[in-house]
Specification:
heterodimer; A: 219 residues; mainly alpha; MetI-like fold; B: 219 residues; 2 domains; 9 helices; flat
Chain lengths: 219, 219
C-alpha cells in the first residue's frame, strides 16, 4: 500500500473520531460554563462540592477513567455504550479544565463591571449573562482552543474500548500487512492534518491576545 | 458479573507494587522532557530558518496524540533494527510529547525576562552559551516554576498510557491481572482509585508548596 492509500484507509475512521469529538464537546462546553460559574459564585460548602466534582474529572488520568467507566461500572449495574462512555469521559475531563478557564476569566474582570450593573438596577444573572460572560469569553478562547486539541487527540484512546476510530483503523491495517513505518507515519500525518490547523489558529489567537510575539528575542 | 470486593482488595498490593515504576518513569521522563524542550526553545532562538523549523516541530509534537506517538516509536524503531525495552520506549515517548509543551513554557519564561538582561550580558562581553546558561536559564526557571510543575503532574497522569505497550507501571499491572483472571472490573477500578488518591495527595502537596513560595516572596 502506498502512503496515500494508508492515509485514505485511516480516514475511514474519521467519522468515529469526529463523532466522539462532537459529542464530547456537547458534554464539555455546558459542564465548563456551569461548573466554572458555580465555582465562582457559590459560597462555602456548596462551592467545595462543585470543586470536588471538577477536581475528580480533572485529576484522574483520562485513560484510566475510560477503562473504569467501560469495564468496572457494568459490575455495579451501570451499562453504557462505548460511544457514550467515550464522549462522557473525554468531554467531562476537558470540561473540567475548561471550567477553570471560565472561573479564572470571571475572577479577572474588574469588579467595577458588576458594580456598574448593580447600580443600573440589573439582576445579578443578567449582569452575568450580558456583562461578565461576554467580556470573559475573550480571555477564555485561547484556553478553549488548546482544550479542543486535547479533546481531538484524546479521541485516539477510544480505540482501546473497541470504537473504530482512526487509530483503530491503523491498527487494523497493521494486521493486514507488515509496514509499520508507512502505517504509523500515516497515522501521525492523519492527526497532524486535523490538529495542526487548530494549533496554528489557537497560537495566532493567543498572540493577538498577549502580544507575546513582539517580545521574541534571538540570542 | 458482580463486583467481587475481596478480589478487588487482593489486587491492590499487586498494583501498588508497580508504584515505584510509575514514579521512576515520571521523574526520568520529566527530566528528559525538560532537557528536550529547552533544547527546542534554544534552537528556536538561534536564527530565522531554525525559528520556523522548530516552531513546526513543536507544533507537530503538540498536534499528535501521545498514544499515536507511543505506537509510532514502539513499532517503527524495531523496523530500523533499534530494539529497546518497552519501558525505554515509553520514557522516550513521554519525554518527546511533553517537550513540545515545555518548550512553550520556556518561551514564555524567557519572554518575561527584562530585555536589559540581554543587553547587559552583551555589553559585558559575555558569550552566547554563558548568556543562555548563566543569565537566562536561572531567571527563566524562577518565572516558570508553577506551569512547569503542572506539566510534570500532567506527565504523571499520562504514565498509564504506557500500559498499551505493556510497561509494568500501575495501570499496566492492573491490566495484566485483568487478562490473567478475565476480570476487568476490579483491578481497573482499584487502579483508578489509586491514581485518584495520588492526584489528591499531589494537589495537597502543591497547595502547600505554593503557600510557602508565596510566604517567602513576601518576606
Amino acid at each position: 500500500m502506498s502512503l496515500l492509500e494508508i492515509i485514505a484507509g485511516i480516514f475511514e475512521g474519521f467519522r468515529v473520531t469526529a463523532t466522539v469529538t462532537a459529542l464530547g464537546l456537547l458534554y464539555a462546553i455546558p459542564f465548563a460554563f456551569v461548573a466554572g460559574v458555580l465555582q465562582h459564585f457559590l459560597p462555602g460548602v456548596r462551592r467545595v462540592l462543585v470543586t470536588t466534582v471538577i477536581e475528580f474529572w480533572r485529576s484522574s488520568p483520562v485513560i484510566v477513567l475510560l477503562f473504569v467507566f467501560y469495564y468496572s461500572l457494568p459490575a455495579f449495574g451501570v451499562r453504557m455504550s462505548a460511544m457514550t462512555v467515550a464522549s462522557l469521559v473525554l468531554g467531562l475531563n476537558i470540561g473540567g479544565y475548561g471550567s477553570q478557564a471560565v472561573r479564572a476569566a470571571l475572577q479577572a474582570l474588574p469588579h467595577g463591571q458588576v458594580e456598574a450593573g448593580l447600580a443600573l438596577g440589573l439582576q445579578r444573572w443578567t449582569i452575568l449573562l450580558l456583562i461578565e460572560l461576554p467580556q470573559a469569553l475573550r480571555s477564555m478562547v485561547p484556553t478553549f482552543m488548546n482544550q479542543l486539541i486535547q479533546l481531538i487527540k484524546g479521541t485516539a484512546l477510544v480505540s482501546l474500548i473497541t470504537l473504530t476510530d482512526m487509530t483503530y483503523r491503523a491498527k487494523e491495517l497493521a494486521q493486514v500487512e507488515y509496514n509499520p513505518v508507512g502505517i504509523y507515519s500515516g497515522l501521525l500525518i492523519a492527526y497532524l492534518i486535523i490538529c495542526y490547523p487548530v494549533t496554528v489558529l489557537g497560537r495566532s489567537i493567543e498572540q493577538r491576545a498577549s502580544y507575546a510575539e513582539s517580545k521574541h528575542r534571538e540570542f | 458479573m458482580n463486583f467481587d470486593l475481596e478480589f478487588a482488595i487482593s489486587t491492590a498490593p499487586l498494583i501498588l507494587s508497580a508504584f515505584f515504576t510509575t514514579i521512576w518513569v515520571t521523574v526520568v521522563s520529566s527530566i528528559g522532557a525538560a532537557l528536550l524542550g529547552f533544547t527546542w526553545e534554544i534552537l528556536r532562538r538561534l536564527n530565522r530558518p531554525l525559528r520556523s523549523l522548530m516552531r513546526f516541530v513543536i507544533d507537530a509534537i503538540r498536534s499528535t496524540p501521545l498514544l499515536v506517538q507511543i505506537y509510532f516509536l514502539y513499532f517503527v524503531l524495531p523496523y530500523y533494527g533499534v530494539t529497546l525495552p518497552a519501558l525505554v520506549v515509553g520514557v522516550f515517548a513521554l519525554s518527546i510529547y511533553y517537550s513540545g509543551y515545555l518548550a512553550e513554557v520556556f518561551k514564555a519564561g524567557i519572554d518575561a525576562i527584562d530585555s536589559g538582561q540581554f543587553e547587559a550580558a552583551k555589553a559585558l562581553g559575555i558569550g552566547r552559551a554563558d548568556t543562555i546558561f548563566l543569565v537566562i536559564l536561572p531567571q527563566m526557571l524562577r518565572n516558570i516554576a508553577a506551569p512547569m510543575g503542572n506539566y510534570f503532574i500532567s506527565l504523571l497522569k499520562a504514565t498509564p498510557y504506557l500500559a498499551v505497550i505493556a510497561v509494568p507501571e500501575m495501570f499496566g499491572s492492573a491490566l495484566d491481572i485483568a487478562s490473567e483472571t478475565f476480570r476487568y472490573a476490579e483491578p481497573v477500578l482499584v487502579a483508578g482509585l489509586i491514581f485518584l488518591a495520588l492526584a489528591v495527595a499531589i494537589a495537597q502537596a502543591v497547595k502547600g508548596l505554593e503557600q510557602r513560595l508565596l510566604a517567602s516572596s513576601k518576606r
